[in-house]
Design brief:
Length: 265
């Protein structure tokens, strides 16, 4: 099903738009005829995505309220905001005893503050247009991986933010949902494969196969597949869906981990 976003309805604002899922979302919405606004801290990747999508480049930090004051004023003057897709994230490796105060604050800022500050800034225009918010979370919002304390904690908090926003602003017509991807083949995930490649001598494809060995679909998602989920949640086709967590992980979160030993018999 194709979900259309006529340009007259305002911009689809995407944080973390220069690479990965954010870039894929920009391309997906632009292909549907939407005007996209591309937010990120690095101008070069934003300009590259803008050249392919006709998007509006807004260079700055999604966790910075002063940057958002500038963004929202410019967007209001150019048609307003129809939806926010919050893709910015990253950081947060290490167990609790390995995580200093600065690393903890950085993980919260990258994964939680970016979503909160973005949503808070966009809400007045979203209320005016009965718009939608999609927060890109993670299966780390549902379960803990090894030695990613900051990341796991921040991603869990994103689901609380989703529910709070959905409850408070649903009466004003704003829908808020979260997407929880598993492994997605992005430049950031490629970097996370490096320790496996070094330890086992795997190629990149073999490393992805290793981390997806117990995933029912036996593969990682593409960024385009996650963008399709975001497009659905932001579209009129999902008009009754709010406060929801849509897991897009190839089935990994349904696996009963304690029984995996029986698969090896």
């Amino acid at each position: 099903m194709t979900h259309t976003f006529p340009p007259a309805e305002g911009h689809i604002v995407i944080t973390g738009a220069g690479t990965g899922i954010g870039e894929a979302c920009a391309r997906r919405f632009a292909a549907q005829g939407a005007r996209v606004a591309l937010i990120g801290r690095r101008r070069e990747p934003l300009e590259r995505v803008a050249a392919a999508t006709g998007g509006l480049v807004l260079e700055g930090d999604a966790a910075n309220a002063a940057d958002w004051a500038r963004f929202t004023a410019q967007l209001e003057a150019q048609g307003g905001i129809a939806a926010l897709i919050a893709c910015a994230g990253g950081l947060g490796a290490g167990g609790a005893t390995d995580t200093g105060d600065a690393a903890w604050a950085a993980a919260m800022r990258a994964n939680l503050d970016t979503a909160f500050v973005s949503a808070r800034a966009c809400l007045p225009q979203l209320i005016a247009r009965r718009g939608a918010i999609v927060l890109v979370a993670s299966i780390a919002s549902l379960a803990a991986g090894p030695s990613v304390c900051g990341y796991t904690t921040a991603k869990h908090a994103l689901l609380g933010l989703t529910r709070s926003l959905a409850r408070d602003y649903g009466p004003q017509g704003v829908r808020v949902n979260a997407v929880c991807p598993g492994w997605v083949r992005t430049p950031m995930a490629d970097e996370e494969m490096q320790p496996l490649m070094a330890h086992y001598g795997d190629t990149l494809d073999e490393a992805y196969a290793r981390v997806c060995a117990d995933v029912p679909l036996r593969r990682a998602a593409s960024a385009d597949e996650i963008a399709n989920v975001c497009a659905f949640l932001a579209s009129p086709a999902a008009s009754i869906v709010t406060g929801a967590t849509l897991v897009a992980d190839g089935g990994s979160s349904i696996v009963d981990v304690p029984t995996l030993a029986f698969d090896r018999l």
